[in-house]
Amino acid sequence: MPYERRFSRLTPPRAAAVVLSLAVPALAQPDPSGIDFVTIGAPGNPAYNGPDPTGRVTGRGSVGYEFKLSRSEVTTAQWLEFFNTFKARADAVPDHIMPIPITWGAEVDPTYTGPGRRFRLRAEADAGNRPVYGIDWRTSARFCNWLHNDKGVALSAIANGAYDAATFAYPAPGQFSDQATRSPGARYWIPSLDEWLKGAHYDPANPTRDGWWLYSNRSDNPLNYGPPETGEANSGFVLPASAERRIPLMSYPNTRSPWGLLDVAGAGREWTEEILLVNGGMYRVLEGSAVGDDIDSARNSDRISVFGGSAEPSGSGFGGNFRIATVPAAGITGLCWAIFGVYGARRCRRSQHENPHVRNCTGDSVRGGGRYFRIRKRRRSRVATARPSASKKCRSRAARPTPARPMANRSH
After folding, report:
1. DSSP 8-state code for residue 281
2. pTM: predicted TM-score of the whole model, two decimal places
3. In this structure, what are the phi and psi dihedrals at residue 28, rounded to the nearest 5 degrees?
4. What are phi and psi of 273, to 5 degrees?
5. Please, what is the average pLDDT of the chain?
6. Dihedrals φ, ψ of 67, to 5°?
7. What mean pLDDT comes out for the span 111-132?
8. Which of 169, 237, 266, 324 is deepest in the core (most CB within 10 A)?
């Protein structure tokens, strides 16, 4: 039997099974950017109202929509692709606009002769997953623009999209005019403070404090800082030859936020969109502890009520990095309703074809509409003489003899 005819005979329950079997693999596909994202659900969660000595996060952290955050901070491999797109060319973006990171798992490629400069991974184990330390906020925003524009190679791909780079300026000392938050319709962006707090600390399954943990390891107790073999986060310790800076991201798989985010504590300090006004100056807020912090600073920075730091948007942010936010893919529910709409329309059209008395799928001319005329093939001969209940407007038509009709093709 042709596939079209098999599908036309599906009942709604069977159609649901087909929809789900086809939709689940499609929705499980990776993000087009190649980045691993985690869905942050529970829209409309309660805001944080726990201990807050500074008064900066009380009432924050409630997000009324579902969104996604990258599972880890930006990796060297992701930053290398971005850098080589705009550095290895004749019209290379200058370093004052896209600064070279302070520390990462890449280096200048000595075999490349131009134009511009090309970078390559260092000859070290897992160099592609090393953190990128020293990213400023504005370059982070340009990276989001690049993702928004499908990793385009034109310079315009980093100029606009999520953020308008034409706004990046310092009109007065200590003041900046950068676009404050992402543009409507942005596909990728730097998380807001509320989004970051929710992804790091909010847990719908936590019965205390309206779901909020004080630390990002699903606990109210400080993390145990140390190397991956013994600790929970890459902060609060140092190793010979600064080896702590070469520990790859995702090296602490058992230290997760309630949603499954990794390296929320330690590695790079993470940029947010939040603007902080202090003593007449403007700064962007960073969250979490960073590699190289002493243990007291790390514990303080990782507590929900304390910002990890703040810096001007063109500053390195004390080893700044960031994780990316994006919109969730279309859900299965919406896909199912869309396909059931098509399924229902198909049945209505078939009902109209089988009986000329049915004008539309709402039954305004013939009561019941398609419901009365979904009959089996063996009963089709009765349709020609059937006199369904009709409105006064249609009875003159129903009284006329109905000419013999050939059997309808069910594959229509």
Report:
1. E
2. 0.76
3. -85, 0
4. -80, -15
5. 82
6. -150, 180
7. 97
8. 266
Place of tokens 């511009």: 116
State whether residue 366 is helix, strand or coil: strand
Residue 122 pLDDT greater than 70, yes or no: yes
Phi-psi region of 44 (alpha: psi -120 to 50; beta: other; left: phi over 0): left
- Which among 284, 298, 297, 286 has a CA at the least distance from the CA of 322? 286
The pLDDT, as a whole number, for residue 362 is 41
Q: Both tokens of residue 197? A: 């707090």
- Rounded to a whole number of angstroms, the distance between the first and last alpha carbons of the chain is 14
Q: Are 202 and 61 in contact (CB under 8 A)?
A: yes
CB atoms closer than 10 angstroms to residue 157: 19
Question: Which residue do the tokens 């993390």 mark?
Answer: 223
Domains for the chain: give ranges and CATH numbers: 1-29+330-412 (no CATH), 31-329 (3.90.1580.10)
DSSP code, position 284: E
- Using pLDDT thresholds of 50, 70 and 90, give the confidence band for residue 330: low
In 3D, which of 159, 221, 233, 163 has the Cα closest to residue 192? 163
Residue among 246, 260, 258, 313 nearest 286 (CA): 313
pLDDT digits (tens, 9 = 90+) for 69-103: 999 999 999 999 999 999 999 999 999 999 999 99
Average pLDDT over every residue of 187-216: 98
d(CA 90, CA 22): 46
33 or 331, which is more confident: 33
Q: Are 131 and 289 in contact (CB under 8 A)?
A: no
- Specify the DSSP class assigned to residue 408: P
State the pLDDT at residue 329: 76
Quick: pLDDT tens for 253-267: 999 999 999 999 999
At residue 154, φ and ψ (nearest 5 deg) are -70, 150
Residue 236's contacts (CB-CB under 8 Å, 6 or more residues apart) are: 225, 226, 266, 289, 293, 294, 295, 297, 298, 299
Q: Report the helix count and the strand count for the chain, using DSSP H and E.
A: 8, 10
Name the 3-class secondary structure at 199.
Answer: helix
Mean pLDDT score, 264-291: 97
